[in-house]
Amino acid sequence: MAGVFINYRTNDGTEAAVLLDEQLKKVFGPENVFRDRRTTQPGVHFPPVLWGHLESCGVLLVLIGPNWLSLCDTDGRRRIDVPGDYVRDEIQRALTWRKTVIPVLIDSAQLPTKKQLPADIAELTERQFMQLRVPYAHLDLPVITEALRSHVPVRRPEPQPAPPASGAAQPGSHSTYTGCAVVNSGSGNAIVNEDRNGQSGGRQ
After folding, report:
1. Can you give the pTM of this predicted structure?
2. Are 104 and 131 in contact (CB under 8 A)?
3. What's the pLDDT at 185?
4. Nearest to residue 9, comparing CAs of 55, 57, 72, 58?
5. Which of 36, 82, 112, 164 has the CB geometry, 3.0–4.6 Å to 168, for a possible disulfide?
């Protein structure tokens, strides 16, 4: 899957992650966009799924909110410094695997400096960033989407059957229709909106 992997921290970028996920699904298809809470089913042993999707993706979007660096665990340690932190590990692996890594600054967030980051992900500061302002998502989401088009295959619309010509007999029918309007109601792909407040036992 040459798709997009959305990296974000719970309580700092969750709303932006959902907005971005919904936008990218429409353009590239849900199969080409990974957001852990939507993509991983309940009961699944998620680490292998997580790393499998990350390895096969083409782009890692690192969503950085205003509190991305300062959020701490119950012991007062910055989450980004805690061994096994999924946000950090996803970034580190993507950089090691030479993926396209794009920091996405949420609202008023600033790109961290090298000194503020653990050494194994300090290279993140050397990547050109983009911006997603939640109140102006209608302006910023199309810009991000356009930037991803060269990395991710665009979903092609499913072909719809052509309506029968006026007066033509329907397949399997012996009746002849003349002077009638034929309505062809095609099927579409349903898109589910959802939100997340956190994933117990999972990434933070």
Report:
1. 0.75
2. yes
3. 37
4. 72
5. 164
